[in-house]
Design a protein that fits this description.
Length: 335
């Protein structure tokens, strides 16, 4: 039986308990469109899928503010609405953070700027981080009913691209997408874009919960680093591994590339990474992904097609053992 709770932020019903995952049947080969439609975009959640009654939903803003506020959906809709196109990418499982999952899409979000909501609360001088809490509950990795709380440095929270989104691709957010209101943090991994948001707390420190301390921290040479900014990554979407290509006839290798800082260069290999060719890359719109393309002609036999990209800071992709490891497909060409 599905569980319902009446919380301070509204009436919430779990529509599915436990870990939930949905992704395209053919993986990245299904990502043919610049804007990823709802049926193709992945869904993943740690503890449960939730449904919040829009008419009962409330957003509480507390902490280091001179003016605490409780907002309704109507309050959010009365604020200036802004639209942005953005890559939406899962960071992968926090239990196996070095395993690439390729759960990604490109969507158009619309909503109120988080900055406008925070400014209306008059932040205190000590404010340094903004915590956001979702309304779901359940079990994950041995934890039970641990609130899903993520945090943003204040500078990012006040950036104009960060939204309290009410729609995706021109349609109101569904429950499965975190509606009626979710946080959207363009340029950062999806784990930071909290679904079913019900509480915002302004603090002088980072949030102490497991989703900011135990999970979603990468090991570095000097300690750990939060999984925030999206690292450079690209995927081949065409041809797919099951494509029927003719030997010695030109065809195009196409795909998508993205990074928090934007992609400046994409290279493609047709021989398993021994040699690399420069591909053409489109300019970026907003925080969206960028298409790349290159014409090639290959002889009969098996070929390993790979792609790699570099961002505006010249940061590239690891060969393996990373969430953004180089993507490759095996293509057989008949004689």
């Amino acid at each position: 039986m599905l569980e319902t709770k009446v919380t301070e932020s509204g009436e919430v019903t779990l529509t599915r308990e436990g870990y939930a995952l949905r992704y395209p049947e053919r993986g990245v080969a299904d990502l043919m469109s610049y804007v990823t439609d709802d049926d193709t975009l992945f869904i993943v959640t740690h503890m449960a899928l939730a449904s919040v009654r829009p008419e009962t939903w409330r957003l509480h803003i507390r902490g280091l503010v001179a003016r605490e506020r409780t907002l309704t959906l109507a309050d959010i809709l009365r604020l200036p609405q802004h639209e942005i196109v953005s890559v939406h990418e899962c960071a992968g499982s926090p239990l196996t953070p070095k395993e690439p999952k390729r759960r990604v899409g490109n969507v158009v979000w619309c909503g109120a700027r988080l900055r406008d909501v925070l400014d209306s609360c008059d932040l205190l001088p000590e404010a340094a981080f903004v915590w956001t809490q979702g309304l779901e509950w359940g079990e994950f990795a041995g934890l039970k009913d641990e609130p899903f709380v993520k945090d943003l440095p204040l500078a990012k929270a006040l950036s104009p691209e960060v939204l309290l989104a009410v729609s995706m691709n021109g349609k109101p957010l569904t429950s499965d997408r975190g509606g009626p209101v979710r946080l959207v943090v363009p340029g950062w991994y999806g784990t930071n874009s909290v679904k079913w948001v019900g509480r915002i707390s302004v603090s002088s420190t980072r949030a102490p919960g497991p989703y900011t301390t135990r999970f979603y921290n990468d090991i570095t040479a000097t300690g750990t680093k939060p999984v925030w900014e999206i690292a450079p990554e690209c995927v081949i979407v065409s041809p797919g591994a099951d494509a029927m290509m003719r030997a010695n006839h030109e065809f195009r290798i196409t795909g998508w590339a993205w990074a928090e800082a934007g992609v400046s260069r994409v290279e493609v290999s047709v021989d398993g990474g021994r040699n690399w060719l420069a591909a053409g890359v489109d300019t970026r719109e907003g925080f969206g992904w960028q298409s790349f393309s290159i014409p090639v002609s290959l002889g009969p036999g098996k070929h390993t097609l790979s792609c790699r990209c570099f961002d505006a800071n010249c940061q590239g992709q690891p060969q393996a053992h990373a969430r953004n490891a180089i993507h490759s497909i095996e293509l057989a060409i008949a004689g």
